[in-house]
Amino acid sequence: MDGPLFDAMLKTALEEALRQDAEEAAGRVPRPSVKHRKRMRSLLAGSWKPVRWAAALALAALLTGTAAGYALGGGVIFQRMFDESPWASVYGGAADTEQLLDMGGQFDTVVEESNGLRFEMLDAVSDGQMAMVSVRLTVLENLEAIQDDPGKMSFAEYRIAPVSGGALSSYGLSTCAWPYGDGLQKGQYELLFTMNDTVLAQGGTYEICLTDFCAGPEGATLFPGAWTLAVTLQPAGVRTLYPGRTCRIDGGDWRLERLAVSPLALTMEFRSLEKRDRIGLGILEDAAVHMADGQVIRREDCTFGLNGSPESIRLTMEFQMPLDVGQVQSVTVCGEEIFLDETER
Questions:
Q1: Helix, coil or strand: residue 259
Q2: For the chain, first and last CA: distance in Å?
Q3: What are the C-alpha distances in Å from 264 to residues 12, 238, 267, 303, 304?
Q4: Between vectors from CA 162 to CA 159 and to CA 163, what angle results, nearest 5°?
Q5: Region at 128 (left for phi over 0; alpha for psi -120 to 50; beta for the rest)
Q6: What is the pTM of this model?
Q7: What are 151-177's pLDDT values in tens digits?
Q8: With b meaning 16 or more CB within 10 Å and e meaning fewer, what string describes 142-176?
């Protein structure tokens, strides 16, 4: 089948899928339906990889505004992001981006527009330990106030929390302005929100609350206001061990009480076995993940995070590519090798 004929057929199929969902939604802006996800998964499931990206690109060309954000969710954008990452060559066969299509969340907010700004939800994924939400922000008014230095933008406050109550262990925000991001038009930003917590395994609805858009040379409040974006993440299984191993860290004995591996992160929790006044910052340098084929993902191949006190330490290694967890054989830390299938050792 030649390219133009395939593109024409794909366009027709995508339009039909969207038309059917629009009819089922009875005129309101829809949340992603299970039926819609199945249709899109079928259209994007071809074994010839360029077909997958042709489908995503054709869909982007067909849609604008809210529909684009609605239709391109379900892990597609994050899969493309990772596939195009320079880390893909480093991780090689240890990575599996296809699994992101099974981690997609649902948008409770599709578009939020007020006070001179428009937020569009594009994609969300969660692996049970770490979640990511992609949002496109468009500045609708007074663009000349920030165009000389668009990279200097922030919010006076932001927080991410489950609507059921409680707080996350950690969350973050990274931004990219239109002169630096592919596909962004003048006045647009890419916002990437991240969450890290064991509670993510339960799924649930999370709210991203933003207050006062700040920009310009002085970082002044350009658009005062408050915006709330909501996303529902699905439950996810996490490969978890409770080793009870004693490790020597910074001259003292610590017990490794919990180790959890998911596609996007490795988490280890330690508790001190003796009274201490401090912990060192250069510890756990040999932390690594060993794959069944012999490949090793080391600390320098990840984003490393450490939260702790003299009594406890929580170590997080966020992978630069979604890891094929089924192929993880063991984890090394403090000279100890912990096999994930402990029944074999």
A1: strand
A2: 53
A3: 35, 11, 10, 11, 12
A4: 105
A5: left
A6: 0.78
A7: 889 999 999 999 999 999 899 999 999
A8: eeeebeeebeebebeebebebeeeeebbebebebb
- CA distance linking residue 70 with residue 33, whole number of Å: 10
Task: Return the ∠ at Cα 321 (arms to 318 and 326), rounded to 5°.
Answer: 90
* Cα–Cα distance measured from residue 197 to residue 220, given in angstroms and rounded to the nearest whole number: 33
For residues 129 and 201, is the Cβ–Cβ distance under 8 A? yes
DSSP 8-state code for residue 96: -
**CA distances to 92, 174, 199, 264 from 318, in Å:** 17, 15, 17, 6
pLDDT tens digits, residue range 220-277? 899 999 999 999 999 999 999 999 999 888 778 899 999 999 999 999 999 999 887 7
Distance separating alpha carbons of residues 108 and 262, to the nearest angstrom: 25
CA dist 2 and 212 (Å) reads 51
Chain segment 186-235, per-residue pLDDT in tens: 999 999 999 999 999 999 999 999 999 998 767 789 999 999 999 999 99
CA distances from 98 to 106, 297, 324 (A): 18, 19, 10
CA count, 13 A, side-chain hemisphere, 114: 10
Please give the mean pLDDT across all residues of the chain: 81
